[in-house]
Every structure is written in C-alpha cells, then in structure tokens.
Amino acid sequence: METIRVPLLEYGFAKSAVPGHGESGDLHLVRCTRTGILIAAIDGLGHGQQAADAARLAMSALRADFDEPVISLVERCHEKLRRTRGVVLSLASIDPEKGMMTWLGVGNVQGVLMRANCTNGPAQEMLLLRGGVVGAQLPPLQATVLPIARGDTLYFATDGIGSGFSANLVTLENPQRAADRILEQFQLGIDDALVLVARLTGIHP
C-alpha cells in the first residue's frame, strides 16, 4: 500500500485481525474539516464481530460530527455506543492556520507525536491516556493542545501493538513504511492491531 496524501498531510496505516478472526475491530479515520484535519484510531473492545460493529458505529459518529471539538466528539460517540460493548479511542484535531494540535485518548490507544525540529518542544510527546470505555464508562475529559510544525509525525497504535514501538521511531521515515514496519516488529498476536502514521506536510513552519 502506498502512502496516502490529503491536503496538508500524508499518512499510512497497517492492521491485522487476531488469529482466527477474519474481521478486525480496529479502525482509523483521517478527514479534512472546516479548520483542518481530524485523525482517529478506534479499538472495539475484545475482537470479532461485536468489536467490529462497535468500532464501525464509533466511526459513523465521528464522521457525522467531524467538525466538532474533540471532547464533544468523544461525548457523542459515548452516547451512541451505550448499547454496544464499547470502544477505546484516541483522536487528534489539527489546525494548520494556528499551528496547533488538540488530542485526547480514552483507554489504551497509544499516541506519539514525533517532532522534525525540537524548537517547539521535546523530540517526542506522548498522549496522556485516561482510563475508561467510550459507551460504558467515560472519564472526565480533558484535551491537550500542542504546537506542531511541518514534518512532525503523529503515531497512533492500538493495544495489539507493544508499547516499545515508540523507542524505535525514525525521523522522516515514509509513513506507510513506518506503519508496516511497526506492525511487523511489534504486533503482539493476541488482539487486533492497528498502526496509523500521519506526517504534516503543509502546515506553517
């Protein structure tokens, strides 16, 4: 699969279903909004058909309200998923005019921002994850806002990927190659797995 390009962004993803199941409950979303870009990684609890159904419903909710702030998006997902087994998810909203990213995680979908230039902050920023399940038990929500610049790369990985992947990131690695490499090297094989890698290409320096 080739790296996918949308305005201001290029990204790649790789995923696999847990052995014995044909459908993955891990999904991703990359969508242009009125003010920038929404990026999300969704993990339906468990695996199999019910996990996939919950993830698809969360995806539908995000698509329906994609211009809303990230906290509102998570709250709306929560309401629509109450009769499902629920999901965990992480999402980021990028505002290219302001050079800012707002991100939020509920559950254990890992998020890492890797900077191309460290003048805006540490070389890596880790997403603060809040325990809970969207659709079942939502924690108090608080989003984090970070400055971003052209060349910065966002990584999302579901819990089918070992946490050690963040210590093996390569600056300016092609997003699709990075996603494929992380999946191959760090998938645990006991759950569905998804890696989403998105690099900012058109944001203000």
Descriptive account of the structure:
A six-stranded antiparallel beta sheet has the order 1-2-12-11-7-8. The protein has helices at 49-64, 70-80, 175-186; strands at residues 4-6, 9-16, 26-32, 37-44, 87-95, 100-106, 110-114, 124-126, 129-130, 144-147, 153-157, 193-200. The protein has 205 residues and is α+β, with helices and mostly antiparallel strands. The protein has a single domain (4-200), classed as PPM-type phosphatase domain (Phosphatase 2c, domain 1, 4-Layer Sandwich). The mean pLDDT is 90. The protein has three helices and twelve strands.
Topology record:
Layout: E1 4-6, E2 9-16, E3 26-32, E4 37-44, H1 49-64, H2 70-80, E5 87-95, E6 100-106, E7 110-114, E8 124-126, E9 129-130, E10 144-147, E11 153-157, H3 175-186, E12 193-200
Parallel strand pairs: 6-9
Antiparallel strand pairs: 1-2, 2-12, 3-4, 4-5, 5-6, 6-10, 7-8, 7-11, 11-12
Shape: globular
Low-confidence stretches: none
- Helix and strand succession? EEEEHHEEEEEEEHE
What structural class results from the helix and strand content? alpha+beta
Number of domains as seen in the coordinates? 1
How far is the N terminus from the C terminus? 29 Å
CATH topology: Phosphatase 2c, domain 1
Give the neighbour order of strands across the main sheet.
1-2-12-11-7-8
Put simply, the count of helices is 3
Helix content: 10-25%
* CATH homolog superfamily: PPM-type phosphatase domain
Q: Averaging pLDDT over every residue, what do you get?
A: 90
Number of strands: 12
User: Biggest sheet, in brief?
Assistant: 6 strands, antiparallel
CATH architecture grouping: 4-Layer Sandwich
Q: What is the CATH domain class? A: Alpha Beta
Rg result: 16 Å
User: How much β-strand is present in the residues?
Assistant: 25-35%
